[in-house]
């Protein structure tokens, strides 16, 4: 999606079809805004590309030109340092809307927001395209701080303490995610807002095991392996479960079984 947005906006600029361009970066993210008057076919092609990528989005909204937005009148997208700013989008029945929110596969605490708003004006298409990248507002900063490793473990006991802290947070997020999914199935919902945080915690556990697993004595190592197996079985997400398996694999490398 990122490449498709870049190709679309580069063509707009190259063909001198932009009427306004705003671009700014901030710590951990950016916002790009392009207002345009272009060929209908060019805009429609990008609109269809966004629809094709909707299957990968954790949240999306689409409305055709001339249709009502039903229960929605506006949308606000957070951005900027600590998400202190917002980009507000008001819905107009005369415009088409395509909004896709996708998480960064390399960092589950970050998200991409892609927006296309346009309408036909004679034989042209006019509107704007927007791209925002930054911290996912659905992942609380305080929770991310809890997931950070405090200091560097220097002994088996310190490793177990750090691992236990992450395990507590993992269980909390995993249980809440399962409850959300169970409740959401009644309304056709298949994703949970807790997944980014759960994935972040699992990644921290993997770093801990791979980087400091050699500190473990045999007794503590056995305890950690057993706990990882339990977390893998309890995980409400396959990818997170695979990360728990990867943690065990990392221990096998740095701390071979006796």
In short:
This protein has 258 residues and is α+β, with helices and mostly antiparallel strands. It has helices at 2-14, 40-52, 141-147, 156-184, 195-212, 218-234, 238-254, and strands at residues 18-26, 29-39, 59-63, 74-79, 85-90, 96-104, 107-121, 124-135.
3D architecture notes:
The protein is built from 7 helices and 8 strands; from the N terminus they run H-E-E-H-E-E-E-E-E-E-H-H-H-H-H. With 258 residues, it is an alpha+beta fold. It has 2 domains: 2-135; 141-254. A 6-stranded antiparallel beta sheet has the order 1-2-8-7-6-3. The longest helix has 29 residues, at 156-184. The protein is elongated and about 75 Å long.
Terminal CA distance: 47 Å
The H-and-E topology, N to C, reads as: HEEHEEEEEEHHHHH
β-strand number: 8
Tally the helices: 7
Helix content class? 40-55%
Query: Overall mean pLDDT score?
Result: 83
CA radius of gyration is 23 Å
> In what range is the share of β-strand residues?
25-35%
Uncertain runs are none
Number of domains: 2
Instruction: Briefly note the structural class of the backbone.
Output: alpha+beta
Identify the overall geometry.
elongated
Strand order of the largest sheet: 1-2-8-7-6-3
Q: How can the largest sheet be summarized?
A: 6 strands, antiparallel
């Amino acid at each position: 999606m990122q490449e498709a947005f870049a190709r679309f906006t580069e063509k707009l600029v190259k063909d001198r079809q932009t009427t306004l361009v705003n671009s700014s970066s901030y710590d951990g993210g950016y916002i790009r805004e392009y207002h345009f008057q272009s060929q209908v076919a060019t805009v429609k092609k990008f609109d269809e590309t966004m629809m094709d990528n909707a299957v990968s989005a954790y949240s999306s909204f689409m409305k055709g030109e001339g249709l009502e937005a039903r229960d929605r009148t506006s949308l606000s997208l957070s951005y900027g340092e600590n998400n202190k700013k917002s980009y507000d989008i008001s819905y107009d029945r005369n415009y088409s809307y395509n909004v896709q929110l996708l998480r960064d596969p390399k960092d589950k605490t970050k998200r991409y927001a892609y927006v296309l708003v346009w309408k036909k004006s004679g034989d042209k298409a006019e509107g704007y395209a927007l791209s925002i990248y930054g911290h996912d507002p659905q992942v609380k900063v305080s929770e991310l701080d809890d997931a950070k490793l405090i200091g560097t473990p220097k002994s088996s006991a310190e490793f177990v303490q750090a691992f236990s802290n992450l395990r507590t947070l993992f269980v909390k997020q995993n249980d809440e995610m399962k409850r959300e999914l169970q409740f959401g199935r009644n309304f056709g919902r298949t994703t949970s807002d807790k997944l980014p945080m759960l994935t972040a915690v699992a990644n921290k556990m993997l770093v801990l095991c791979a980087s400091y697993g050699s500190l473990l004595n045999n007794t503590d190592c056995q305890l950690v392996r057993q706990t990882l197996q339990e977390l893998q079985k309890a995980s409400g997400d396959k990818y997170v479960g695979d990360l728990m398996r990867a943690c065990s694999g990392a221990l096998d490398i740095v701390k071979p079984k006796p």
